C-alpha cells in the first residue's frame, strides 16, 4: 500500500507543479470554459486511441490539438459567440467519445476511472509521462513567460511590440492540452480543469506579482494533493475528487482571510 501511495503522491505533485503556472493564465485570461472543452475532448481521444490501438496520452494530445485548431478556425465566423462554440464542441466531443466507447463491445474500459481519475492506479509508465511532459511544459512556460504574460495583459500592445500574438495564444492552448493529457489519470476528464483553476484562483489573493502567483498556485496544488490523498486513505473516498475537495476547502479558507487581492 505504501508503494501505491508513494506513486500517487509523486504523480499528483508532478501534475500540481505543472498546473500551477498554466492555471494562472487560465484564470487571468478567463479560459476556464476552454479548459473544460479540451478536457471533455480528452475522452474522445481516449476512445479513438483504444479503437485505433494508439498510446492513449498521444491520442489525447492529438485530439486536444485538433480541437484547439478547429476552435481557432470556427472563431473566424463572428456570427457565433466563442462561449457558444465552446459549449457545442465540449458536449459534442464528450458525447461522441461515449458513443464510440459503447460501440466497442469486445474491449473492457474503466470509464469511471477516466471520468473521475484513479490516482492509486498510477504506474511507473504514467510517472514517466507526467515528469517528461512536465519538464517540457515547465521549460516552455519559463522560456515564453514574458510573451505569454504580455499577450495576457494587453494583446494590442504586445502586437505593437512585435510579439506574435496568435502564435503565443496557440502555444498556450497546446500547453494546456498537454497538461490535460498527462493529468487525465490523476483527477479524470471531468475534474482536470479544477486542478488548473482552483489553486490559481486561491493563489491570486496571496500573491503580489504574477511570478509569485504561479509559485503559490503550484504550492497550493501540491498541498491539495497531499490533503486529498490523506482524506482518501483514511476515509476510503475517491482519490481524484478528494484532491479537488481539498483544493476547494483551501480556496474557501484563503478567501475568508481579510487580505487584499494583488494579482
UniProtKB/TrEMBL annotation:
Compartments in which it is found: Cell inner membrane; Cell membrane
Keyword terms: Cell inner membrane, Cell membrane, Ion transport, Membrane, Transmembrane, Transmembrane helix, Transport, Zinc, Zinc transport
GO cellular component: ATP-binding cassette (ABC) transporter complex
Pfam family, one: ABC-3
InterPro entries from the UniProt entry: ABC_BtuC-like (IPR037294), ABC_TroCD (IPR001626)
TM segment ranges: 43-72, 84-104, 128-149, 170-201, 213-235, 242-259
Membrane topology: Multi-pass membrane protein
Major location (coarse): membrane
Domain of life: Bacteria
Signal listed as a keyword: no
Any GO BP: transmembrane transport
Annotated family: Belongs to the ABC-3 integral membrane protein family.
PANTHER family listed in its UniProt record: ABC-TRANSPORTER METAL-BINDING PROTEIN (PTHR30477), HIGH-AFFINITY ZINC UPTAKE SYSTEM MEMBRANE PROTEIN ZNUB (PTHR30477:SF23)
Known role: Involved in the high-affinity zinc uptake transport system.
Protein name: High-affinity zinc uptake system membrane protein ZnuB
Species of provenance: Zooshikella ganghwensis
Gene coding for it: znuB
